[in-house]
User: What shape does this take?
Amino acid sequence: MPVPYPPSEIYHFVPLNERVPVYQRPFTLAAEVVPEATPEARKALAGKNELAIAGTLHYQACDDSICYNPVALPISWKVALRR
Assistant: This one.
């Protein structure tokens, strides 16, 4: 499921005379994660007290004169499991 983003704002990038959607203020991305409840998943998680979740954040940063190369940043979390 895609992670929902807040609405962007349009920025006029003067060096290229382009109008592009941007995020100029801090914001939070959130996604609900629910482990499968299938018998196979329950067996795989049996005896474990945490679940590792990994993903990749893709982004590109710009300032008033240049846009930097896009970046793919690996991200991960460990969350506690409970019965």
Observations:
- Residues 35 and 41 are 8 Å apart (CA to CA).
